[in-house]
Amino acid sequence: MRATLIYGAGDIRVENVPDPVLRQPTDALVRVLRSCICGSDLWPYGSAPVSEHGRRIGHEFLGVVEETGREVSGLRAGDVVVAPFVWSDGICDFCVEGLQTSCRHGGGWGTQDVDGGQGEAVRVPHADGTLVKLPVGEDSALLPSLLTLSDVYPTGHHCAVTAGVGPRTTVTVIGDGAVGLSAVLAARRLGAEQIILMGRHKDRTDLGREFGATDIVPERGEEGIERVKELTGGDGTRTVLECVGLESAMRTALAVVRDGGVVSRVGAPQYQQIPAGFPEFRRNITITGGGAPARAYIEELMPEILDGTLQPGKVFDRTVSLDDVPAGYQAMADRAALKVLVQP
Amino acid sequence: MRATLIYGAGDIRVENVPDPVLRQPTDALVRVLRSCICGSDLWPYGSAPVSEHGRRIGHEFLGVVEETGREVSGLRAGDVVVAPFVWSDGICDFCVEGLQTSCRHGGGWGTQDVDGGQGEAVRVPHADGTLVKLPVGEDSALLPSLLTLSDVYPTGHHCAVTAGVGPRTTVTVIGDGAVGLSAVLAARRLGAEQIILMGRHKDRTDLGREFGATDIVPERGEEGIERVKELTGGDGTRTVLECVGLESAMRTALAVVRDGGVVSRVGAPQYQQIPAGFPEFRRNITITGGGAPARAYIEELMPEILDGTLQPGKVFDRTVSLDDVPAGYQAMADRAALKVLVQP
């Protein structure tokens, strides 16, 4: 089959790789209908060391079950399914608690012996625990929005949930990437009263407004912080959803959160430490979030996609074929595309 | 009157200072019955720069109201009262929410124009908002335990509350100082199932056992981390109460918290940053806590002291007169005393 590999910074190739086969009785084989490129894929795209044999990449996909191992009981060939961005057994204590990212027998896509999502097919370990059946056909117009259940939408939702967003909460969302926009959508869905979106790309913040942002702050740094303070009577918001992953974004987050408030972060951190000295201590700031257990949220988030109420798939503004995935990476890195859908 | 001043590291003096007088109609004058030395006083005692005129110190006291300003309505001369470690107006939005440490008109003791607690008397700003009346006499045997309501006991309680300790929670408490032991007491009171106390001073950890610790880990660093892991099936505890304030303690906290768990910190941080890179992110660790709004908890914590159920005052293992406060500091710095009560 064809699949995407990364050979180093800026070096994405689509190549022939061995067709996946069942290895464990709990595996399923899934033919990919749609996958996509994640903002977090841009980190290795920007800085990965040279790899002689390449490494599979891509962790968001939905597709059709083609074959199942003999211990898979909840799925059958022909089912349309979505995969969260980590696979998990679904039965360990962490999975039962809804923290599938810490599954005792789970792992990531595109790792040793496990296919990446940006390819024609994927062997899915622990298929019963990992995959969620979608009640749609292969040609459904809802596929892009359903694909967001793989990562970006639950990630924004996780950010809002861990921050404690609820009715009448004030929220600042930092970052107008697909995760930030998904966080806006999630915060709105949870009833947030004021949602300030910090972002400077007008086409993206326009979508942010459509998703529920009440205020847009295009300024960055000190100027942006001052603007959020102005919008909140000088105090900042009770919750801040940090959807970038850079230290500068985290510093902004800490500056615009109200005393006693919560900063939740879901952007894969490109830093090792965060400021947490006396100022943050005195102000009783909580820092939470992390890698989203997307699997935990899919059933909750799916109905509004199925009935057309919410369209998180609007974050996709470009579609490429599998062979054009390298161009898709470049478009996202250049900020020419917000999020790229891949149709193998 | 006599009051304690700090002139620099290791240089504590008790001197004559002007008697406090009412300045604002919302002030009260309080004659101090008991005060004490806080673990956090040891940080300036260890490292404060030389001060030509000295700086008042002490932020925990209870006493008798001697005089009230004309706008003070809830207190009268003769009332026995306890003061939390910051003063606050009691009516701003932060106070109403229970975050009096962020009061819009509040402040600390021993700052510009405000007396410290380690003296004979204190002018209390915003007396109605700040002071809590104690239903005991000046000679009550409960004064030491009631004095803990000023800081150390609510601080331990804040740590447990913000960490989300409740029935059946597993807890690691880092630090066998008075705050750590108070956190043990608070965690037990909140119903924690397993309370692992990390501390190496046997007399202190013995008190920790009395307060409710189920396990004692005297080892430090990697060895201590391994021991906590052994006690928790390899996972660590769901909550960690960091009651020291050193970076090493914070690193231990992050190492012994279970994935998805919470580290709460109430030890005044002697560090500027905390590790929060990909490992902590992937594990969905929450970092919370901060300076405890003691005022918010006093009414809740007082009844069990009054009826004798709980005796947080057991953290006091030495009593000194006001003139002997310098020796009290030295005894705490030498770890010869756990916490020193001052009887002016």
Automatic annotation (TrEMBL), chains A, B:
Single GO MF descriptor: metal ion binding
Metal-binding among keywords: yes
Domain Alcohol dehydrogenase-like C-terminal as annotated: residue spans: 178-304
InterPro entries: ADH-like_C, ADH-like_N, GroES-like_sf, NAD(P)-bd_dom_sf
UniProt cross-references to Pfam families, sorted A to Z: ADH_N, ADH_zinc_N
Signal sequence range: none
Keywords from the named record: Metal-binding, Zinc
Gene3D superfamilies (alphabetical): Medium-chain alcohol dehydrogenases, catalytic domain, NAD(P)-binding Rossmann-like Domain
Required cofactor names: Zn(2+)
Organism domain of life: Bacteria
Keyword Zinc: yes
Residue span, Alcohol dehydrogenase-like N-terminal domain: 25-135
Protein name: Threonine dehydrogenase-like Zn-dependent dehydrogenase
Organismal lineage: Bacteria, Bacillati, Actinomycetota, Actinomycetes, Streptosporangiales
